[in-house]
Amino acid sequence: MMKGIESCQLERIKNGVFLMEYVVGIDLGTSSLKGIVTNKAGKVIACASEHYSFFQKQTGWSEQNSDDWFIALQKVLRKFIAEVANFSENLKGISFSGQMHSLVLLDEKKQVLRPAILWNDVRTSRECEQIKDKLGEQLLEITKNQVLEGFTLPKLLWVKKNEPEIWSRVRHILLPKDYLRYRLTGKMHIDFSDAAGTLLLDLERQVWSEEVAKSFGIPFTYFPPLVESLKCVGTLLPESLGDVKISPKVKVMAGAADNACAALSAGIFSSEKGLVSIGTSGVFLTCGEGQEPVTGELHWFNHAVPASCYLMGVTLAAGYSLQWMKQTFAQEKSFPEALSGIEKVLPGANGLLFTPYIVGERVPYPDGQIRGSFLGIDTKHTFPHFMRAVIEGVTFSLKDVQVLLEKMLRKTFTEIISVGGGAKNKEWAQIQADVFDAEIFALAVEEGPSMGAAMIAAVGVGWFDSLEICAKSFVSYHKVATPITENVRTYQKIYSIYQQVYGQTKVISHELRAFDDENVEEE
Predict the structure, then answer these.
(1) Active site amino acids
(2) Residue 147: CB partners within 8 Å, gap ≥ 6?
(3) pLDDT of the chain along its 523 residues, tens only?
(4) Could you give the angle at the alpha carbon of 254 between the alpha carbons of 250 and 259, nearest 5°?
(5) What whole-number distance in Å separates Cα of residue 350 and Cα of residue 365?
(6) Could you give phi then psi for residue 508, rounded to 5 degrees?
(7) 3-state class of 194 per DSSP?
(8) How far apart, in whole angstroms, are the C-alpha atoms of residue 190 and residue 237?
(9) Which of 260, 517, 199, 215 is nearest to 368 (CA)?
(10) DSSP for residue 331
(11) Torsion over CA: 235, 239, 243, 248 (sign)
(12) CA neighbours within 13 Å on the CB side: how many for 327?
């Protein structure tokens, strides 16, 4: 039975004065930047977020202005200065979590050359084929991952081919959080957890792969030094934040990829626990044990914990599927209103099935051209049926990952920590318990990857000797759902039908995508 971890005692009182020190965790997400302030006890003193936009010039494209990230960071820090007593004087460290794979290109003067190409951009299908033709299985041997549209290497090749003038000026390659950290410290690095998602890291040797870089004419000098997530890579440049006044003595830690930080915030340090995270995308994740076969079916990345890795699978449109459904068919409703009534719909949504491939899919189907579908629609289906079907379809797509992980690790997950939208809705938590056939736990305090970043900062400034020890103060759980035997049986039957949909709709979906692309080109 998974037990909550008790928080440690608050800081000591000396001479009648409560001593308080802070660290900040920053998560640079797809739609917003979120920051939290914590103390040594893991208590969240303040949190703030700032939204920004991403834009799509064409179908399948997704880009963002990197300056918007920095403006959001400045605004968040200003809020902390205004809301937290003695924040500037007592801030000891900052660390970062960030969206993986997204590409930031800088010139010789370290100026950004073009908008960042994001992880959910799927324009690079031809580049993926080019990589497969050039390296084949060798890429999997080196990086332990297969090529997908969302990864960084295909984006580099797309720019090289389609924007030669920009490519001729490229001198530095960064990922989003590393660009943000560069703006604070003036120093460029990429940590191992984020580097693992570029398809340019030799995962076994833990170095940039010269072989991959040379194969595609990418100069080795473009890559910054690799560092551990816990590494202090510098302090704040006095002028870096403009009018935001924070001590230049504040330590800045390298930080980690968003999924690695999410794993930290949920206390995932072994393969005994599974993590399901439902945000814009959906993730099922656990730690690797070091002996797993490298098949390419799952992503294999470095953890923020030194000398550790995690295995995960992603569905590209998890919360995004629900957001699309609401915005398209119930824009006037709030999310609670839109979800009202799904509890009255039987498991299986009365024969209505949804596949959440609305922007393509990753695991177990690495297919940027597949698209979603509703199957089984008839006149008895109402809006709550469609909403429940969307939730069930997203959960089935994560079940696909669970099945692969259990097969690879030769174990069954009986307890799963759920974070994000799937943990906050009572009915969705129950659907997870029934589909995964596992007890579902939620975090007592859920701040997501920003909490993982704060934990890295807490260890980096010397508050704790390790991330595992830090978790004893920062992480605790409570149970939110237990599987219902009858529902488990029902979902096993429906899931077996769901597993057939991709194979039976792939050709049709690809033909429709080709037709759509042709019409867009003609317009």
Answers:
(1) 258
(2) 128, 131, 132, 139, 153, 154, 199
(3) 443 322 333 333 333 333 489 999 999 998 899 999 999 999 999 999 999 998 888 888 999 999 999 999 999 999 999 999 899 999 999 999 999 999 999 999 999 999 999 998 989 989 999 999 999 999 999 999 999 888 999 999 999 999 999 999 999 999 999 999 999 999 999 999 999 999 999 999 999 999 999 999 999 999 999 999 999 999 998 888 888 888 889 999 999 999 999 999 999 999 989 999 998 889 999 998 877 788 888 999 999 999 999 999 999 899 999 999 999 999 999 999 999 999 999 999 999 999 999 988 889 998 888 999 999 999 999 999 999 999 999 999 999 999 999 999 999 999 999 998 888 899 999 999 999 999 999 999 899 899 999 999 999 999 999 999 999 999 999 999 999 999 999 999 999 999 999 999 999 999 998 888 777 555 4
(4) 125
(5) 26
(6) -60, -45
(7) helix
(8) 19
(9) 517
(10) T
(11) positive
(12) 6
Report the distance separating Cα 34 and Cα 50, nearest Å: 7
Map 10-38 to HEC letters: CCCEECCEECCCEEEEEEECCCEEEEEEE
Return d(Cα 458, Cα 473) in angstroms, integer.
Answer: 11
The token pair that represents 371 in the structure block: 């698209």
Token match 């041997």: residue? 141
Identity of the amino acid at 208? W
Contact 216, 193 (CB under 8 A): no
Structure tokens at 470: 């830090």
Task: Please answer whether residues 284 and 271 qualify as being in contact, where contact means their C-beta atoms are separated by less than 8 angstroms.
Answer: no
pTM of the model: 0.87
- Both tokens assigned to 347: 């498991």
Q: b/e string for 302-325 if b means 16 or more Cβ within 10 A?
A: bbbbeebbbbbbbbbbbbbbbbbb
Q: Which residue has the tokens 């997530």?
A: 229
Residue with tokens 């009182």: 13
From first CA to last CA, the distance across the chain in angstroms is 59
Cα 98 to Cα 31, 170, 504: the distances in Å are 11, 22, 36
Amino acid at 116: A
In Å, what is the CA distance from 265 to each residue of 23, 98, 415, 456?
15, 14, 16, 10
How many helices (H) does the chain have, and how many strands (E)?
18, 26
